Structure formats: structure tokens, C-alpha cells
């Protein structure tokens, strides 16, 4: 029998999203009453627009919000147009670089696109809404803020927060600017409560200190209980944080990463991570996930293909996901080069170093030389041993040349 009354928390527990809650029973009661009455609960997920796309590392709380909406509740996505100007010290060793107004505006557009892949935005009762904290911080008076908000915060307490304590323990400098971050995030939570009736913040566990900053401010200043609900940091069997691929972020927006590469990230997940990833990164029902989790040995590859397809469908749409799947089948099961792969064209012969550089698989010719020494580059599945090799029309198969870096990166070269 389920421990919780609310549909949302039960789903979170069953699928492995639940890490910590400020008041488990209170949040469960709040959600249950909302689900019973048909009036949506309101919760928010915040993200500072320091980049123009979210990446796989952001998907866990984003999928939590997706389920929050599926349960009939209303998600708010907060972009920190104000807080991005300061920087969250959580897990950081130094101050963020300052961004121009133009860059911030472009980044906010990119984040809206990322959020829109997982949530339904609109004017309905439980449609998602995007808000920017710059709207309420831009005209705020510093002295008024210190008097009205700063009086509710204890510096002693702030120094015990992980985001501050670990930075000080590492003897990394923390500016007073960054020290203010938790006050601003706490104020955000209370502002969303006053404007939209938002009573929950959903985030990764690294945000716990910032979340409790808001719940405590709500209790002290507004005499309301606000709730914090966090997910664990998802790691692989080696303890490495998921969301990185060969040192590069696995971006959500297609302008930053081809759909094929997104698909391949999930297709190449380790055997031990398949069940965890099916629960978190797909909408598949739990009965189907349990069936796939039970597969062994070579059969686990079938589960990985389903994981890759389902995760990519959510992020890039079914049509693009199917194309990526067909490309993978063409490359790895039929042994052919084709499909939706990154492609470059050359007018005549081209040196192997230039080809891989133009394709974007290496950052420099020096990196290409190092990979050749390590047998890391291939032409038509054959290892490149000569850094001076010139690719010509004689290398073309069916009008193109297949270029590969390692086992996971593949592209095409067409010679006119």
C-alpha cells in the first residue's frame, strides 16, 4: 500500500525522483487536497539564464515538473534575469562572469525553448507559465530590501549552508555579491507565492540551502508554509554525474546538439543505468519499465534502444527521434553510412586533419594528431594511421566518406 495520498509524490517515489522534502506530510496533504478539489497546486522550477540552452543535467527537475503538470498542477518556470547577474555559489569555486543585456535576452529565449520541450505552456488552469525575476528586482530599493528582507536572515545560519560552507572550507574566495544569492532566491519564492499562490519549489538537491531560505522567509514574514522538494543528483555506476558526454554538455536545444548525438547519449548509457534512466528520462509506464529492467546480457541493448527513442521523443519530437533511430540502425546494424549525421562538403581533395577539424570533432589539428596516435580516428571504419593522409574521391562510398571519432561520433564528407 502506498505511503502517500497524493498522486505526484507517489510517482516521484516510484520513479526515483524523491530525495528530500521540507515537510513530507504537509506537502502530501497540500497536493492531495488540490488533486481532490481539482484546483491546481502551484510549484516552480528556477534556472538562471547563464547559457542559451538547458542540458541533460537539468532534465531531472524538469521531468519532475512534467509529472507535476501531468498530475493536474501548474508549473511556473522562473528564469533568473536578476540572479544571473550575481551567480549562485552552489558548487562553484569562483564568481560567474557578468553577461551583457543582449546575451541575457538571447539566453532567456533559449531557456524558454528548452522548457517548452517538456512542459505545455498556455493560458489554461494548469498550463505552464514562464516568469523572470528581473521584473520585480529591477526597481527594488536596496535600503528597503535590507530592512524588509535582510532582517529575517541570520548570518550565523547562512554560514552553515553547504553552498557557503564548502566554498569557505576550500579556502575559495566568496564575494559579498554571491553571499546575497540565497536572500534573492528566498525573496523569489515569496514573490511567486504572493503573485501566483505558488507554495512549492522543485529542484535538485544542490539547491536545498536556497530553497529553505525561501521557506523560512515565508514562515517568518508571511506566516505561510512553503514547501521544498528535491531530487537526488543522478550519477552513473562510477559515481560520475550524468549529463556529460566526453567532457561536453548534452544540450537540449537542437541548435546546440544534433538529434542523433542526443539519441546516442542515451543509447550508450551503461547497462547498470538503464533502469534508472528509463524511470527518470521517459514517460513509459512502470510495468513496461520493470519488463525492460529484467532483460539480461545482449537483450539489454533492446532496452537501451527504447530508452534512447523515448527520451529523444520527449526532447526533440517523434519524427526527429525516429530519424535518429534509423540513422543508428543504418550505421551500426546495417554497416552503412547514411541518415541524419553531421555532414561537410569539400571542393576537391582534403587533408584528414582539416576534414575532422571542419566537422567539429576536434578543436585543433594538434588534437587530431593526438587522436591519430591513439588510433582514435577512422575513415570508412578503418583506422587512420597517417596524419598527412589526403581524402579523395577514391575514398567515397555511395557518394560520401564516413568519418568517425571513437565509437560514438560519426559524420559524413562529400567531395565535389
Q: How does this model look, in words?
A:
The structure is a single chain. With 416 residues, the protein is of the alpha/beta class. It has three domains: 7-231, Rossmann fold, CATH 3.40.50.620; 258-333, Orthogonal Bundle (Tyrosyl-Transfer RNA Synthetase), CATH 1.10.240; 343-415, Roll (Structural Genomics Hypothetical 15.5 Kd Protein In mrcA-pckA Intergenic Region, Chain A), CATH 3.10.290.10. It is 44% helix and 14% strand. It is built from 18 helices and 15 strands. The chain has helices at residues 7-15, 24-37, 59-70, 101-116, 134-137, 142-148, 155-159, 162-169, 176-179, 181-196, 208-222, 259-267, 274-281, 286-293, 300-316, 318-333, 352-359, 365-373, and strands at residues 20-21, 42-47, 74-79, 129-132, 200-204, 227-231, 244-245, 248-249, 343-346, 350-351, 377-379, 382-383, 390-391, 401-405, 409-415. The strands form four sheets. It has a six-stranded mixed sheet, with helices on both faces. Helix 10 (181-196) packs across helix 11 (208-222), helix 13 runs antiparallel to helix 14 (286-293) and helix 15 (300-316) runs antiparallel to helix 16 (318-333). It is globular and about 75 Å long.
Amino acid at each position: 500500500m502506498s505511503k502517500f495520498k497524493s498522486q505526484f509524490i507517489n510517482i516521484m517515489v516510484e520513479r526515483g525522483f524523491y530525495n528530500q522534502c521540507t515537510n513530507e506530510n504537509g506537502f502530501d496533504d497540500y497536493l492531495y487536497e488540490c488533486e481532490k478539489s481539482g484546483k491546481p497546486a502551484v510549484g516552480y522550477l528556477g534556472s538562471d539564464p547563464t547559457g542559451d540552452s538547458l542540458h541533460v543535467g537539468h532534465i531531472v527537475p524538469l521531468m519532475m515538473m512534467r509529472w507535476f503538470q501531468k498530475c493536474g498542477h501548474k508549473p511556473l518556470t522562473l528564469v533568473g534575469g536578476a540572479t544571473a547577474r550575481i551567480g549562485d555559489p552552489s558548487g562553484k569555486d569562483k564568481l560567474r562572469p557578468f553577461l551583457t543585456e543582449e546575451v541575457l535576452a538571447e539566453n532567456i529565449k533559449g531557456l524558454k525553448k528548452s522548457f517548452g520541450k517538456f512542459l505545455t505552456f498556455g493560458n489554461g488552469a494548469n498550463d505552464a507559465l514562464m516568469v523572470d525575476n528581473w521584473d520585480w528586482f529591477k526597481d527594488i530599493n536596496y535600503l528597503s530590501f535590507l530592512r524588509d528582507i535582510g532582517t529575517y536572515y541570520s548570518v550565523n545560519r547562512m554560514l552553515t549552508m553547504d553552498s557557503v560552507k564548502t566554498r569557505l572550507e576550500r579556502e575559495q574566495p566568496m564575494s559579498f555579491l554571491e553571499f546575497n544569492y540565497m536572500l534573492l532566491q528566498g525573496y523569489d519564492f515569496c514573490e511567486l507565492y504572493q503573485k501566483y499562490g505558488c507554495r512549492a519549489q522543485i529542484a535538485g538537491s544542490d539547491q536545498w540551502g536556497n530553497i529553505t531560505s525561501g521557506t523560512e522567509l515565508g514562515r517568518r514574514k508571511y506566516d505561510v508554509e512553503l514547501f521544498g522538494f528535491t531530487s537526488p543528483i543522478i550519477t552513473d555506476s562510477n559515481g560520475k554525474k550524468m549529463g556529460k558526454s566526453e567532457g561536453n554538455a548534452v544540450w537540449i536545444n537542437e541548435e546546440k546538439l544534433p538529434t542523433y548525438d542526443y539519441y546516442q547519449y542515451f543509447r550508450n548509457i551503461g547497462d547498470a543505468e538503464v533502469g534508472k534512466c528509463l524511470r527518470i528520462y521517459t514517460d513509459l509506464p512502470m510495468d513496461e519499465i520493470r519488463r525492460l529492467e529484467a532483460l539480461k546480457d545482449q537483450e539489454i541493448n533492446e532496452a537501451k534502444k527504447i530508452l534512447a527513442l523515448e527520451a529523444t521523443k520527449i526532447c526533440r519530437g517523434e519524427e526527429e527521434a525516429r530519424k535518429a533511430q534509423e540513422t543508428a540502425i543504418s550505421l551500426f546494424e546495417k554497416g552503412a553510412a547514411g541518415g541524419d549525421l553531421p555532414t561537410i562538403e569539400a571542393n576537391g581533395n582534403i587533408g584528414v586533419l582539416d576534414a575532422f577539424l571542419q566537422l567539429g570533432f576536434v578543436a585543433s589539428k594538434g588534437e587530431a594528431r593526438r587522436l591519430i596516435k591513439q588510433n582514435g580516428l577512422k575513415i570508412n571504419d578503418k583506422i587512420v594511421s597517417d596524419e598527412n593522409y589526403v581524402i579523395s574521391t577514391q575514398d567515397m562510398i555511395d557518394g560520401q566518406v564516413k568519418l568517425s571519432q571513437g565509437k560514438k561520433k560519426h559524420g559524413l564528407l562529400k567531395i565535389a
